[in-house]
Design a protein that fits this description.
The protein is mainly beta. It has 2 helices and 35 strands. A hairpin with a 2-residue loop joins strand 12 and strand 13. Pfam families: DUF5719.
Length: 465
């Protein structure tokens, strides 16, 4: 091919490219300036419940952990005895392994597996009597979550507090522990992390994390898998055991906190102690609260009884992330619940006691979650327990309790009443109520809140095209 032919072909190609480029540019300009007809359709939203064919777990803490039971390992908490579990609803019980080598130090923590949409609840109780521990414990079994709070206990001389963390899933959980005391957040444990293996329970000594604290609150957060947490609190006087308590977790800080079941029974019938030597009650009720946010506030503390009598107990001054405490000098003998009315959201608990001669026991009662009107909620009441139904609202509630001797009763505004009956009960009310279970005997006391289902959502919005 001659040079002139190559030149002509190259020029033709260049001209063709220029024409195509010009046409594309003109088309783009035309599309940008000319309104073309379009078809518009609003996406159709469809709600899908992803839990319909799923399962959910409820974890029971297991046997009470004793700190210092092994003299060679004083920082090790070893479960003692065996807890009894009462189930309300249909589910299959399994057991979590321990955190030691090859599952050692197992507490017998149970996991209840049931259908996601089925009513399901459980509670556990344990009578403890040994040379080093004594008392009656009870707690609600709870659904694993990624964040929870616990209030109660301390780590001063004679007082030990342990944290039990159960992981019922098939993947490990990385758990962060933050501890708060009477002076604020404890710096040493802000970044404390614990790995909880799948289908196992880990027990942690808070005395080792935060020694010499008069009062404690704990925030537990997890990644990788949700967990269920509880506290075990034991008290000794020298070498004499003087009580045990387990503490049920809380999910949400509230301005209105209701704690059903609180009592202070004494064989001396609340014998008054001279004011210059101590409070009127030998073992006063104690109310603790912590505001988890950045704002300070105040809270009024009240006791209520079955007749709707509201007794002012005192005021809590709330500094951010600091555990405030109120010692109730004289507990109203007929009162059955504590109400905290705060101007900032708080987590809280109340310590009650039972004393008979030389026998003493105590219980850190956790707040109950509000049961919505018309919601049938399973309420497992362990043997020896009594249902306490509190109405902190302004209107009377017609409450129906089924499962034993079916009963419908009226709970007036500002009242908390006892309802006899044990077993697999169910509570339905025409107005919001707060429900707990109390076990009260001669020198023994225990209790736990009735837990409505945790607010997990299985609703997924799907937009069709």
């Amino acid at each position: 091919m001659s040079k002139s032919e190559k030149f002509v072909r190259g020029g033709a190609r260049a001209l063709t490219g220029l024409v195509i480029t010009g046409a594309a540019a003109a088309g783009a300009l035309l599309l940008g300036t000319v309104q073309l007809p379009s078809i518009q359709s609003t996406p159709h939203a469809l709600q899908v419940n992803t839990t319909q064919a799923g399962e959910r777990n409820i974890v029971c803490a297991g046997a009470f952990p004793e700190l210092g039971a092994d003299p060679s390992r004083p920082d090790l908490a070893i479960p003692t005895g065996e807890a009894q579990v009462l189930v309300a609803g249909d589910g299959e019980l399994g057991t979590l392994t321990g955190s030691g080598p090859e599952g050692a130090n197992a507490s017998g923590a149970r996991v209840l597996v049931g259908q996601a949409e089925a009513p399901l609840a459980a509670a556990q109780t344990q009578k403890i009597g040994s040379p080093t521990l004594s008392g009656l414990t009870a707690s609600a079994c709870v659904e694993p979550v990624n964040e929870q709070w616990l209030v109660g206990g301390g780590s001063t001389l004679g007082l030990s507090t342990t944290l039990s963390v159960g992981n019922a899933s098939a993947v490990p959980a990385t758990v962060q522990i933050s501890v708060f005391d009477e002076n604020g957040e404890v710096d040493a444990v802000q970044t404390a992390g614990v790995i909880v293996a799948p289908n196992s329970e880990q027990i942690v000594s808070l005395n080792g994390y935060a020694p010499n604290r008069e009062r404690l609150a704990v925030r537990v957060t997890s990644t990788g898998a949700p967990v269920a947490a509880s506290l075990g609190v034991a008290r000794v006087d020298g070498i004499v055991p003087v009580g045990t308590s387990t503490v049920t977790r809380q999910l949400r800080a509230e301005r209105l906190v209701v704690i059903p079941g609180v009592a202070n029974e004494d064989s001396h019938d609340h014998e008054e102690v001279p004011s210059d030597t101590g409070p009127a009650d030998r073992f006063p009720v104690q109310v603790n609260a912590v505001a988890p946010g950045d704002a300070a506030g105040t809270a009024g503390v009240y006791a209520i009884d079955a007749a709707g009598v509201r007794t002012e107990l005192g005021t809590l001054d709330l500094a951010p992330r600091t555990v405030a405490s109120l010692a109730v000098e004289t507990w109203p003998h007929d009162a059955t619940a504590v109400v905290i009315d705060a101007d900032v959201p708080v987590f809280a608990a109340a310590e009650g006691a039972s004393n008979s001669g030389e026998t003493h026991d105590f219980q850190w009662f956790a707040p109950a979650s509000k049961i919505a009107a018309g919601s049938a909620t399973p309420a497992p009441v362990v043997p020896g327990g009594t249902l306490i139904v509190a109405n902190a609202g302004d209107e009377a509630a017609e409450v129906t309790v089924e499962g034993g001797a079916d009963e419908t009763l009226t709970v007036g505004p500002g009242a908390a009443v006892e309802v006899p009956g044990t077993g697999q009960l169910s509570v339905t009310s025409t107005a919001p109520v707060w429900v707990g279970v109390r076990m009260l005997g001669s020198g023994t006391i225990a209790g736990y809140p009735v837990m409505p289902r945790a607010e997990h959502t299985g609703d997924l919005t799907v937009y069709t095209r």
